[in-house]
Amino acid sequence: MDTDWSVIVDFLPQLLAGARTTVYITITGLMGGLVLGTLAGLMRAYGGRVLNAVAFAYIEVIRGTPIVVQVMFLYFALPVLADLRIDPLGAAILAIVVNAGAYIAEIVRGAFLSIGKGLTEAGLAIGLPHWKVLVYIVGPLAFRRLIPPLGNQFIVSLKDTSLFIVIGVGELTRTGQEIMAANFRAVEIWTAVAIIYLIMTGTLSLILRTIEKRMRIL
Amino acid sequence: MSIIEFRNTSKHFGDLRVIDGVDLSIDAGEVVVLVGPSGSGKSTLLRCINGLESITSGDLVVDGLSVTGGSKQLREIRQEAGMVFQQFNLFPQLSALENVAFGPRKVRGLTAEKARDVARDLLEKVGLRDKAGHYPAELSGGQQQRVAIARALAVKPKVMLFDEPTSALDPELKQDVLNVMRALAEEGMTMVVVTHEMSFAKQVGTRLIFMEHGKIAVDGNPRQVIDTPPNDRMKDFLQHV
Fold first, then answer.
1. Which residues of B touch A131 (CB under 8 A)?
2. pTM, whole model, 2 decimals?
3. CB-based contacts of B35: which residues, under 8 Å, 6+ apart?
4. Is the Cβ pair B92, A141 closer than 8 Å?
């Protein structure tokens, strides 16, 4: 078997463009997922019966179905059902928002509920409204406990973007696949793709570990 | 004129009547010590006063405001009735000074600078001025509880509620907390204290209430009722504390 690692150099600009798309989908998707997940998580933890049920249904549906099916649904079924057409990139981002949101919701719920009831009572007892107790006291404490599981979810979501190959988004895996189809350099290209993923997830881990170190878990 | 008034107040947890038709009127300046066996409803009675437990029936009026008057009114009551907990419940991410300044800043709306001044004065008062920058984890239990008292006082309440404030403390550390409470009583603060400290009840209390099965079984002068319990159940209870 002859390998020619120089092909990586030739295709590096293309691979990096794919990686850029991967990063873009991940970051925008996770920002939306954080908002949606926080909202759903707080609804689960503190919402009344109705809000709780809505959030519960959302989380169960998303966690119970594969992300590939979710993105297929967004891209192919939604136009038929609701006459709503979105481009592949939009569908990819939306899939991450909805999918990561469900997992983040459970992380947020767990972190908030792990903060002792006594602290909430202490905040209420000095005359704060409940929402202020959550914002000023429970929230900052819960946030510290969120970081490790959140980091895990970020890495999972980043890698999940590779599945969007099925709707033809030009992210890193898709780019690798296209180059491979043209020159059959499987070993070189997939090695390069794997290393680029490792660099991205490694960077993410490093950032999260730095944040975690700076904050004492209380 | 009474500052706390229970009017046929009941609190049920399902079928369990934790507070069973209590009538009780507490005047400004009284130091009421609540004692009783576990499950007798003394902590629940205390927690009803600032609405941490809702009442099931009857009424409970604190400084002219009913605890059933909605969440805004409840917040007003809580600003008038500060609470100290058995487990201190200090905010762990804030220093001692920030813990005490928190209420004045966020509840009373003082500027950060003024809130810190209030907090410094109160830490001085509880003997912890030099611990202002320490975090709760760096303080002993007794010190944490004194910070917690300062935190409750910082909101300028008219009444202080103490829920077994020394039960989680070593015997040696208890004394510092009890001394702070004694000083507070001497200043004329209205206090309701759930405790097993009978010497504190005798020396500082102006009134002792013994609860049993959600009802007030004995209500009298602490020295008198502790030295000559008017009720067999209370006599039995006192032998065990």
1. none
2. 0.86
3. B42, B194, B195, B196, B198, B201, B208, B209, B210, B211, B237, B241
4. yes
Chain A residue with the nearest C-alpha to that of B103: A126
Block residue for tokens 């944040």: A211
Distances in Å between the Cα of A203 and the Cα atoms of A32, A199, A209, B49 are 21, 6, 10, 53
Q: Quick check: B107 and A126 CB within 8 A?
A: yes
Q: Does B50 touch chain A (CB under 8 A)?
A: yes
B12-45: string of b/e by CB count within 10 Å (b at 16+)?
Answer: eeeeebbbbebebebeeebbbbbbbbeebbbbbb
Q: How many residues does chain B have?
A: 241
pLDDT in tens, B162-183: 999 999 999 888 999 999 999 9
Which chain B residues contact residue A119 at CB under 8 A? Answer: 89, 91-92
Mean pLDDT by runs of 10 across the 241 residues of chain B is 94 93 96 94 96 96 95 96 97 96 95 96 96 96 97 97 95 93 96 96 96 95 93 90 79
Quick check: B89 and A136 CB within 8 A? no
Q: What pLDDT, in 10s, does the model give residues A187-208? A: 999 999 999 999 999 999 999 8
